[in-house]
Amino acid sequence: LSSLNNEEIQNLERLITSNVIKAIIKIIPSKKNSRPNGFTAVLYQTYKDELIPIVLKLFQKLEE
User: Fold this and answer.
1) Which of 6, 24, 47, 60 falls 20 to 30 Å from 15 in CA-CA distance?
2) In this predicted model, what pLDDT tens digit does every residue of 6-58 receive, in sequence order?
């Protein structure tokens, strides 16, 4: 198994914010088929304003 370098460790320790989630949704390739959960990138991009607070709350609970 490979180990993480310092930059990768710092990235994992970063707080997840709504801006991070928004940026990730924006760069999801829309030409690909559905995500592992069955939802397409177009769905995430279309409903990002509704989804971002939900996803953010999920990550906050996971961090607890």
Assistant:
1) 47
2) 999 888 888 899 999 999 999 988 766 666 667 788 888 999 999 999 999 99
What's the CA gap between 39 and 33, in Å, rounded? 9
3-state SS record for the chain? CCCCCHHHHHHHHCCCCHHHHHHHHHHCCCCCCCCCCCCCHHHHHHCHHHHHHHHHHHHHHHHC
Query: Rounded CA gap, 15 and 40, in Å?
Result: 25
This prediction has a pTM of 0.70
